[in-house]
From TrEMBL:
Keyword DNA-binding listed: yes
Gene3D superfamilies linked to this entry: Homeodomain-like, Jelly Rolls
Signal peptide positions (record): none
Protein name: AraC family transcriptional regulator
Organism encoding this protein: Enterocloster alcoholdehydrogenati
Alphabetical list of InterPro entries matching this protein: AraC-bd (IPR003313), Homeodomain-like_sf (IPR009057), HTH-like (IPR037923), HTH_AraC (IPR018060), RmlC-like_jellyroll (IPR014710), Tscrpt_reg_AraC-type_HTH (IPR020449)
Span of domain HTH araC/xylS-type: 194-292
Pfam families in UniProt: AraC_binding (PF02311), HTH_18 (PF12833)
UniProt keywords, alphabetically: DNA-binding, Transcription, Transcription regulation
Amino acid sequence: MKDRGKMESAEYHETKIHGQREFPFNIYPCSIPGDFKNVALHWHEEMEILSIKKGHGRVTVDRVEYEVEEGDIMGIFPGQLHSICGVGEQRMDYENIIFRLSLLMGGEEDLCTGYLLWPLVKEQMKAPLFRRRGMADYGEFERCIAFLDRVSEQRKTGYQLAVKGQLYEFMYQVFQAGIPLQEKRPGKARERIKQVLGYIEEHYGEPLDTGQAAGLCFYSQSHFMKYFKQYTGQSFVNFLNDYRLFRAGGFLRTTSDTVTEIAARCGFGNVSYFNRLFRRKYGMTPGEYRGGDE
């Protein structure tokens, strides 16, 4: 079930259905900067597997940066805040395998569900999975991914059974890797950053400053600025502008509204400032991005 559709999402809390509702699994080939410049900080309820095919880049998970290169495999668990970017101008091609753990879960009395999978759904994994060629169990994860690629490409009758079987195998290897579980869900720090990102998503078109965002977390403005940059790698203002520009790009592609109208809708009262930031981010004017002469 490979899908060349863009993984670019306008939501920090991604709610897109991956695959079909009755079979929430999909594989997306992606490229940075071929498909998009980067994947902004976000989270979702699904399990995500990254398989780096060519080049190298950087994946950040819960404030920890991982330099990734061809052959690397990462498993990102539900609720973990993560972002993906390239390094300099270099290209990185990777495969994104996303599925809901509910695909593997049984009823309340099922041991695997209650003892193994439910803690993952409750966001209790302390760290992502990271495997590189040469590590002792690397081959086990590599074989799982190769198998998923093959059966998803062929899509023979009943291939869903083969996918589920291989996902069970992958998760078995995850537990053999010994990634520790937290006794309870992550503390307030990660939840507060999620709250801020959700607020940006809902109110990006309105006036919004650092003081307001700090108030959402009950932090002083100075503490919030430090805390936000630790999580995102950017100042709050730069992060907000990036999101607004991302949404503006979407409106340019999907509507006939003028650049001035789109700039205002995305929180930019000054169209000249919007044009300048847009060119800096995308390397072209809004009109060129849309493909017209505006």
